[in-house]
Design goal:
The chain is of the alpha+beta class and 352 residues long. The protein has helices at 46-59, 71-81, 86-100, 117-129, 137-147, 155-160, 229-236, 242-254, 300-319, 338-350; strands at 8-21, 33-36, 39-44, 66-68, 104-105, 108-109, 113-115, 176-178, 181-183, 190-196, 210-228, 272-279, 325-332. The protein folds into 2 domains: 8-63 and 175-186 and 219-350, no CATH class; 66-153, no CATH class. The chain is built from 10 helices and 13 strands. A hairpin with a 2-residue loop joins strand 5 and strand 6. The chain is flat, with a radius of gyration of 24 Å. The two termini are 13 Å apart.
Length: 352
Protein backbone atom coordinates (compact mmCIF):
# COMPACT_ATOMS: atom_id res chain seq x y z
CA UNK A 1 0.00 0.00 0.00
CA UNK A 2 1.39 3.43 -0.99
CA UNK A 3 0.88 6.75 0.79
CA UNK A 4 -0.61 8.55 -2.23
CA UNK A 5 -3.97 9.01 -0.45
CA UNK A 6 -2.54 10.58 2.71
CA UNK A 7 -4.21 13.90 3.45
CA UNK A 8 -6.67 13.46 0.59
CA UNK A 9 -10.39 13.65 1.23
CA UNK A 10 -13.69 13.77 -0.59
CA UNK A 11 -16.01 16.40 0.84
CA UNK A 12 -19.74 16.57 0.25
CA UNK A 13 -21.50 19.93 0.71
CA UNK A 14 -25.16 18.97 0.36
CA UNK A 15 -28.40 20.94 0.37
CA UNK A 16 -31.49 18.79 0.89
CA UNK A 17 -35.03 19.94 1.60
CA UNK A 18 -37.64 17.95 3.48
CA UNK A 19 -41.35 18.74 3.73
CA UNK A 20 -43.48 18.09 6.83
CA UNK A 21 -41.34 15.62 8.81
CA UNK A 22 -39.73 14.65 12.07
CA UNK A 23 -36.57 12.96 10.82
CA UNK A 24 -34.76 12.90 14.16
CA UNK A 25 -36.48 13.50 17.49
CA UNK A 26 -35.27 14.41 20.96
CA UNK A 27 -36.21 12.80 24.28
CA UNK A 28 -39.54 14.66 24.23
CA UNK A 29 -40.45 13.44 20.75
CA UNK A 30 -39.87 16.84 19.15
CA UNK A 31 -37.65 17.43 16.10
CA UNK A 32 -34.07 18.12 17.15
CA UNK A 33 -32.95 21.73 16.94
CA UNK A 34 -30.01 24.06 17.51
CA UNK A 35 -29.44 27.78 18.04
CA UNK A 36 -26.97 29.08 15.44
CA UNK A 37 -26.18 32.71 14.82
CA UNK A 38 -28.87 33.56 17.36
CA UNK A 39 -31.51 31.90 15.18
CA UNK A 40 -33.34 28.61 15.92
CA UNK A 41 -32.56 25.95 13.31
CA UNK A 42 -33.80 22.46 12.54
CA UNK A 43 -31.20 19.74 13.14
CA UNK A 44 -30.70 16.08 12.21
CA UNK A 45 -27.88 14.47 14.18
CA UNK A 46 -24.79 12.96 12.60
CA UNK A 47 -25.57 9.62 14.27
CA UNK A 48 -29.00 9.57 12.62
CA UNK A 49 -27.49 10.08 9.16
CA UNK A 50 -24.76 7.51 9.76
CA UNK A 51 -27.31 4.82 10.55
CA UNK A 52 -29.38 5.75 7.48
CA UNK A 53 -26.26 5.43 5.30
CA UNK A 54 -25.29 2.09 6.91
CA UNK A 55 -28.77 0.67 6.28
CA UNK A 56 -28.71 1.95 2.70
CA UNK A 57 -25.33 0.29 2.13
CA UNK A 58 -26.94 -3.00 3.17
CA UNK A 59 -29.75 -2.38 0.65
CA UNK A 60 -27.04 -1.91 -2.00
CA UNK A 61 -25.65 -5.36 -1.24
CA UNK A 62 -22.79 -4.36 1.06
CA UNK A 63 -22.17 -6.86 3.88
CA UNK A 64 -22.18 -4.57 6.90
CA UNK A 65 -21.28 -5.37 10.49
CA UNK A 66 -23.64 -5.57 13.44
CA UNK A 67 -23.65 -2.88 16.12
CA UNK A 68 -25.06 -4.79 19.05
CA UNK A 69 -25.24 -5.44 22.78
CA UNK A 70 -25.86 -9.13 22.03
CA UNK A 71 -22.20 -10.07 21.63
CA UNK A 72 -22.67 -13.16 23.77
CA UNK A 73 -25.47 -14.53 21.58
CA UNK A 74 -23.59 -13.65 18.37
CA UNK A 75 -20.55 -15.72 19.38
CA UNK A 76 -22.62 -18.47 20.98
CA UNK A 77 -24.56 -18.95 17.73
CA UNK A 78 -21.30 -19.05 15.71
CA UNK A 79 -19.81 -21.63 18.08
CA UNK A 80 -22.97 -23.74 18.04
CA UNK A 81 -22.77 -23.81 14.23
CA UNK A 82 -19.31 -25.38 14.61
CA UNK A 83 -20.51 -28.13 16.91
CA UNK A 84 -20.32 -26.62 20.39
CA UNK A 85 -22.82 -27.93 22.92
CA UNK A 86 -25.35 -25.37 24.26
CA UNK A 87 -23.31 -25.08 27.47
CA UNK A 88 -20.02 -24.64 25.59
CA UNK A 89 -21.51 -22.11 23.19
CA UNK A 90 -22.97 -20.14 26.08
CA UNK A 91 -19.61 -20.02 27.87
CA UNK A 92 -17.73 -18.99 24.70
CA UNK A 93 -20.20 -16.16 24.18
CA UNK A 94 -19.84 -15.08 27.78
CA UNK A 95 -16.01 -15.02 27.64
CA UNK A 96 -16.05 -13.03 24.40
CA UNK A 97 -18.59 -10.45 25.61
CA UNK A 98 -16.51 -9.91 28.75
CA UNK A 99 -13.40 -9.38 26.61
CA UNK A 100 -14.96 -6.63 24.52
CA UNK A 101 -17.46 -4.90 26.81
CA UNK A 102 -17.27 -3.76 30.41
CA UNK A 103 -20.16 -5.64 31.99
CA UNK A 104 -22.55 -8.32 30.85
CA UNK A 105 -25.88 -8.88 32.61
CA UNK A 106 -28.39 -11.53 31.61
CA UNK A 107 -26.47 -12.06 28.38
CA UNK A 108 -26.64 -8.41 27.35
CA UNK A 109 -23.59 -6.14 27.28
CA UNK A 110 -23.69 -2.62 28.66
CA UNK A 111 -22.36 -1.08 25.46
CA UNK A 112 -22.86 -1.56 21.74
CA UNK A 113 -20.03 -3.38 19.99
CA UNK A 114 -19.31 -3.30 16.25
CA UNK A 115 -18.59 -6.85 15.08
CA UNK A 116 -18.53 -8.28 11.56
CA UNK A 117 -19.41 -11.79 10.44
CA UNK A 118 -15.76 -12.53 9.63
CA UNK A 119 -14.73 -11.51 13.15
CA UNK A 120 -17.45 -13.68 14.72
CA UNK A 121 -16.38 -16.62 12.56
CA UNK A 122 -12.72 -16.07 13.41
CA UNK A 123 -13.45 -16.12 17.14
CA UNK A 124 -15.66 -19.20 16.83
CA UNK A 125 -12.97 -20.99 14.78
CA UNK A 126 -10.43 -20.21 17.52
CA UNK A 127 -12.70 -21.65 20.21
CA UNK A 128 -13.34 -24.74 18.08
CA UNK A 129 -9.60 -25.22 17.67
CA UNK A 130 -9.24 -25.33 21.45
CA UNK A 131 -12.18 -27.64 22.03
CA UNK A 132 -14.34 -24.68 23.08
CA UNK A 133 -12.17 -24.11 26.15
CA UNK A 134 -11.64 -20.64 27.59
CA UNK A 135 -9.36 -18.25 25.70
CA UNK A 136 -7.86 -15.27 27.58
CA UNK A 137 -9.37 -11.87 26.82
CA UNK A 138 -6.17 -10.44 25.30
CA UNK A 139 -5.89 -13.39 22.95
CA UNK A 140 -9.55 -13.07 21.93
CA UNK A 141 -9.01 -9.41 21.13
CA UNK A 142 -5.99 -10.32 19.02
CA UNK A 143 -7.95 -13.02 17.18
CA UNK A 144 -10.81 -10.62 16.47
CA UNK A 145 -8.45 -7.95 15.14
CA UNK A 146 -6.72 -10.49 12.89
CA UNK A 147 -10.04 -11.73 11.52
CA UNK A 148 -11.30 -8.27 10.54
CA UNK A 149 -11.88 -8.14 6.77
CA UNK A 150 -13.63 -4.85 5.86
CA UNK A 151 -13.09 -5.48 2.15
CA UNK A 152 -15.61 -8.34 2.26
CA UNK A 153 -17.74 -7.50 5.28
CA UNK A 154 -17.85 -4.81 7.91
CA UNK A 155 -16.99 -1.96 5.53
CA UNK A 156 -19.06 0.24 7.83
CA UNK A 157 -16.50 -0.35 10.60
CA UNK A 158 -13.82 1.10 8.32
CA UNK A 159 -16.05 4.03 7.39
CA UNK A 160 -17.58 4.89 10.76
CA UNK A 161 -14.91 3.63 13.15
CA UNK A 162 -14.96 1.49 16.27
CA UNK A 163 -13.95 2.17 19.86
CA UNK A 164 -13.28 -0.72 22.22
CA UNK A 165 -12.87 0.45 25.80
CA UNK A 166 -11.21 -2.80 26.88
CA UNK A 167 -8.67 -2.89 24.05
CA UNK A 168 -7.29 0.22 22.37
CA UNK A 169 -5.52 -1.99 19.81
CA UNK A 170 -8.91 -2.91 18.35
CA UNK A 171 -9.97 0.69 17.82
CA UNK A 172 -10.58 1.65 14.21
CA UNK A 173 -10.30 5.30 13.19
CA UNK A 174 -13.33 6.44 11.21
CA UNK A 175 -12.66 7.37 7.59
CA UNK A 176 -16.00 9.19 7.27
CA UNK A 177 -16.95 12.26 9.30
CA UNK A 178 -20.52 13.56 9.45
CA UNK A 179 -21.59 16.96 10.70
CA UNK A 180 -25.04 17.48 12.15
CA UNK A 181 -27.38 18.56 9.35
CA UNK A 182 -28.53 22.12 10.10
CA UNK A 183 -31.24 24.13 8.38
CA UNK A 184 -29.88 27.04 6.39
CA UNK A 185 -32.74 29.21 7.61
CA UNK A 186 -34.83 29.88 10.70
CA UNK A 187 -37.15 27.03 11.65
CA UNK A 188 -39.81 27.07 14.36
CA UNK A 189 -41.38 23.69 15.13
CA UNK A 190 -45.10 23.30 14.56
CA UNK A 191 -47.69 21.04 16.18
CA UNK A 192 -49.92 18.61 14.32
CA UNK A 193 -53.20 17.88 16.11
CA UNK A 194 -54.81 14.69 14.85
CA UNK A 195 -57.84 12.50 15.50
CA UNK A 196 -58.76 8.92 14.65
CA UNK A 197 -62.17 7.38 14.09
CA UNK A 198 -63.20 3.96 15.41
CA UNK A 199 -64.39 1.95 12.39
CA UNK A 200 -66.57 -0.28 14.57
CA UNK A 201 -68.25 2.43 16.63
CA UNK A 202 -72.00 2.16 17.24
CA UNK A 203 -74.37 4.26 15.16
CA UNK A 204 -75.27 6.48 18.10
CA UNK A 205 -71.60 7.32 18.77
CA UNK A 206 -70.04 10.36 17.14
CA UNK A 207 -66.70 12.08 17.25
CA UNK A 208 -63.20 10.67 17.33
CA UNK A 209 -62.01 7.66 19.27
CA UNK A 210 -58.53 9.06 19.75
CA UNK A 211 -56.86 12.48 19.76
CA UNK A 212 -53.21 13.37 19.90
CA UNK A 213 -50.52 15.77 18.81
CA UNK A 214 -46.90 15.66 17.65
CA UNK A 215 -44.31 18.19 16.56
CA UNK A 216 -42.90 18.50 13.06
CA UNK A 217 -40.96 20.93 10.92
CA UNK A 218 -39.99 21.59 7.33
CA UNK A 219 -36.47 22.64 6.35
CA UNK A 220 -33.69 22.92 3.81
CA UNK A 221 -30.62 21.36 5.42
CA UNK A 222 -26.93 21.92 4.84
CA UNK A 223 -25.13 18.61 5.25
CA UNK A 224 -21.36 18.21 5.39
CA UNK A 225 -19.67 14.81 5.02
CA UNK A 226 -15.95 14.15 4.68
CA UNK A 227 -14.33 10.90 3.56
CA UNK A 228 -10.63 10.60 4.44
CA UNK A 229 -9.16 8.50 1.63
CA UNK A 230 -5.84 8.03 3.40
CA UNK A 231 -7.52 6.60 6.49
CA UNK A 232 -9.75 4.39 4.36
CA UNK A 233 -6.73 2.96 2.51
CA UNK A 234 -4.90 2.31 5.79
CA UNK A 235 -7.86 0.46 7.28
CA UNK A 236 -8.46 -1.56 4.10
CA UNK A 237 -4.70 -2.21 3.75
CA UNK A 238 -5.07 -1.50 0.05
CA UNK A 239 -4.88 1.20 -2.60
CA UNK A 240 -7.94 -0.34 -4.26
CA UNK A 241 -10.39 1.89 -2.41
CA UNK A 242 -12.74 2.99 -5.18
CA UNK A 243 -15.30 0.15 -4.72
CA UNK A 244 -15.75 1.34 -1.13
CA UNK A 245 -15.90 5.00 -2.21
CA UNK A 246 -18.53 4.14 -4.84
CA UNK A 247 -20.81 2.25 -2.44
CA UNK A 248 -20.46 4.95 0.21
CA UNK A 249 -21.30 7.69 -2.30
CA UNK A 250 -24.31 5.78 -3.64
CA UNK A 251 -25.61 5.18 -0.12
CA UNK A 252 -25.05 8.81 0.82
CA UNK A 253 -27.12 9.96 -2.16
CA UNK A 254 -29.99 7.56 -1.47
CA UNK A 255 -30.14 7.41 2.34
CA UNK A 256 -32.93 9.12 4.26
CA UNK A 257 -33.61 8.77 8.01
CA UNK A 258 -36.45 6.33 8.65
CA UNK A 259 -38.27 8.14 11.47
CA UNK A 260 -42.04 8.61 10.97
CA UNK A 261 -41.82 7.84 7.27
CA UNK A 262 -45.12 5.93 7.43
CA UNK A 263 -47.05 8.99 8.65
CA UNK A 264 -44.92 11.86 7.31
CA UNK A 265 -43.28 10.53 4.16
CA UNK A 266 -40.19 12.68 3.51
CA UNK A 267 -37.96 11.04 0.90
CA UNK A 268 -36.90 13.99 -1.22
CA UNK A 269 -33.62 13.91 -3.20
CA UNK A 270 -30.68 16.27 -2.91
CA UNK A 271 -31.47 19.76 -4.17
CA UNK A 272 -27.84 20.59 -4.85
CA UNK A 273 -24.34 19.55 -3.84
CA UNK A 274 -20.74 20.50 -4.39
CA UNK A 275 -18.43 17.50 -4.05
CA UNK A 276 -14.70 18.10 -3.92
CA UNK A 277 -11.51 16.11 -3.93
CA UNK A 278 -9.05 18.07 -1.79
CA UNK A 279 -5.75 17.58 -0.04
CA UNK A 280 -5.55 19.14 3.40
CA UNK A 281 -7.70 19.94 6.41
CA UNK A 282 -11.42 19.34 6.12
CA UNK A 283 -13.55 22.45 5.61
CA UNK A 284 -17.19 22.76 6.55
CA UNK A 285 -19.07 25.83 5.31
CA UNK A 286 -20.71 28.16 7.78
CA UNK A 287 -24.37 29.14 7.58
CA UNK A 288 -24.07 31.29 10.69
CA UNK A 289 -26.16 33.95 8.95
CA UNK A 290 -29.54 32.43 8.26
CA UNK A 291 -30.79 32.41 4.67
CA UNK A 292 -33.97 34.38 4.11
CA UNK A 293 -36.63 34.49 1.43
CA UNK A 294 -36.98 37.82 -0.39
CA UNK A 295 -39.40 39.48 -2.76
CA UNK A 296 -36.80 39.11 -5.52
CA UNK A 297 -36.18 35.42 -4.73
CA UNK A 298 -38.83 33.82 -2.49
CA UNK A 299 -37.37 30.31 -2.90
CA UNK A 300 -35.36 29.31 0.17
CA UNK A 301 -33.65 26.51 -1.78
CA UNK A 302 -32.46 28.87 -4.52
CA UNK A 303 -31.18 31.32 -1.91
CA UNK A 304 -29.45 28.48 -0.04
CA UNK A 305 -27.74 27.31 -3.24
CA UNK A 306 -26.54 30.86 -3.91
CA UNK A 307 -25.27 31.18 -0.33
CA UNK A 308 -23.43 27.85 -0.52
CA UNK A 309 -21.73 28.84 -3.79
CA UNK A 310 -20.74 32.24 -2.36
CA UNK A 311 -19.31 30.75 0.84
CA UNK A 312 -17.44 28.04 -1.02
CA UNK A 313 -15.87 30.63 -3.35
CA UNK A 314 -14.97 32.84 -0.38
CA UNK A 315 -13.33 29.94 1.46
CA UNK A 316 -11.36 28.96 -1.63
CA UNK A 317 -10.15 32.56 -2.05
CA UNK A 318 -9.21 32.88 1.63
CA UNK A 319 -7.31 29.56 1.81
CA UNK A 320 -5.49 30.23 -1.46
CA UNK A 321 -2.82 27.60 -2.17
CA UNK A 322 -3.71 25.86 1.11
CA UNK A 323 -7.14 24.95 -0.29
CA UNK A 324 -5.59 21.98 -2.11
CA UNK A 325 -8.43 21.48 -4.58
CA UNK A 326 -7.89 18.59 -7.01
CA UNK A 327 -11.38 18.40 -8.51
CA UNK A 328 -14.90 19.69 -7.92
CA UNK A 329 -18.27 18.36 -9.08
CA UNK A 330 -21.76 19.82 -8.98
CA UNK A 331 -24.88 17.69 -8.76
CA UNK A 332 -28.44 18.92 -8.57
CA UNK A 333 -31.86 19.01 -10.18
CA UNK A 334 -30.58 21.18 -13.03
CA UNK A 335 -26.94 20.14 -13.38
CA UNK A 336 -24.95 16.95 -12.95
CA UNK A 337 -26.03 13.45 -12.00
CA UNK A 338 -25.10 10.68 -9.59
CA UNK A 339 -23.54 8.69 -12.44
CA UNK A 340 -21.43 11.66 -13.55
CA UNK A 341 -20.29 12.28 -9.98
CA UNK A 342 -19.23 8.67 -9.42
CA UNK A 343 -17.49 8.36 -12.78
CA UNK A 344 -15.71 11.65 -12.13
CA UNK A 345 -14.48 10.47 -8.73
CA UNK A 346 -13.34 7.19 -10.28
CA UNK A 347 -11.39 9.06 -12.94
CA UNK A 348 -9.68 11.41 -10.48
CA UNK A 349 -8.80 8.67 -7.99
CA UNK A 350 -7.42 6.39 -10.71
CA UNK A 351 -4.82 8.93 -11.83
CA UNK A 352 -3.42 9.69 -8.38
Amino acid sequence: MSDKFNGLRIEFHILQSFPVSCLNRDDMGAPKSALIGGVPRARVSSQCWKRAVRMQMRELGVAIASRTKYVKKTIADSCAALGASPEQADKCGEWTAAAFTKTVKDGVSDTLFFISDSEARGIADAFAGKGFAEIPAKELQKICKGAMDPVHDGLDIALFGRMVANSADMNVEAAASFAHAISTHRVDPEIDFFTAVDDLRSEDTSGSAHMGSLEFNSATYYRYVSLDLGQLARTLHSDDIFPAVEKFTQALILAVPAARQATMAAVTPWDYAVVTLRRGQGMQLSFNTAVRASAKEPDIVANSVAALKDRFAAAQRMYGSLFGLKAAFEIGMEKGSADELISGLRREISVL
